[in-house]
Design a protein that fits this description.
The complex is a heterodimer of chains A (143) and B (114).
Chain A lengths: L2 E8 L3 H17 L4 H22 L5 E8 L2 E8 L33 H5 L5 E6 L5 E8 L2
Antiparallel strand pairs in A: 1-2, 2-3, 3-5, 4-5
Chain B lengths: L1 E8 L2 E10 L1 H15 L5 E12 L1 H15 L5 E4 L3 H9 L8 E2 L2 H8 L3
Parallel strand pairs in B: 2-3, 3-4, 4-5
Antiparallel strand pairs in B: 1-2
The chains are: A alpha+beta (143), B alpha/beta (114).
Chain lengths: 143, 114
Amino acid sequence: MSVTEHLPPFTPTMAGLEQCAGALRALLEIRAVPGDARYYIELAFDEIASNIIRHGRPTGEIDLTIQFDVGEVVLTFEDNGVAFDPCDRPHPVLPLSPEGSIPLDDVPVGGRGLALLRTFVTQMAYERTPQQRNRLSLAIPVR
Amino acid sequence: MEMTVVNLGEDLIKVGLVGRLDSPGVGKVEAQLLSQLVPAAGNAIIDLSSVDFVSSMGIRMLVSAAKGLRARQAKLALFGAQPRVLRVLEAVALQQIVPICPTEAEALAAVTPA
């Protein structure tokens, strides 16, 4: 059985993100999602929502729907920011700093978000809608 | 997100982080953490035992701190990470950039000269 929940759209600001993160946590608790999966769902939310705000710079609110399926949860983000397909990015090679081969000075400070997502997200799909909106879906296994 | 700082001696401080190291949490604590740690240029250990969530923004902040200290010939080590937090840190091989120790004693040993 599949159930889809819509959270209130949130403004593309850190305050908006924080508010939505709180609503998402409450929903995952009500739905009794197991702790490990809950962590990864919250992690996917933080990575994608912060990317949209920092890089996509939407002018309108960000929509989030959460679909609860057997064995997985699918998060779908929609925003009117700059077109960006994360599925299209080269896969960063983990680890980013093989010991001894890259001095700490040369280790990049950031850029780990997508690499981290790819360690637990089982499916990621992107489309630019005819309404010029980004729609990004991520499936996270629930065991 | 809260932060405490304890001086453990000359050139050695312990920082305790409490809360969620997600984007909003990092936004609240990053400037304070880096300004406490980096200019002091002493060795530091960070207690993660009360951090129940970390995202790549949190990892970014920890790498910034480690790089800032390294540039000043000082060392940083982390300790006490909860299992789920530890799994995320290890998923991006953070332990190859900053020592991640189970206990405070091991973190202290990692930053102080033998």
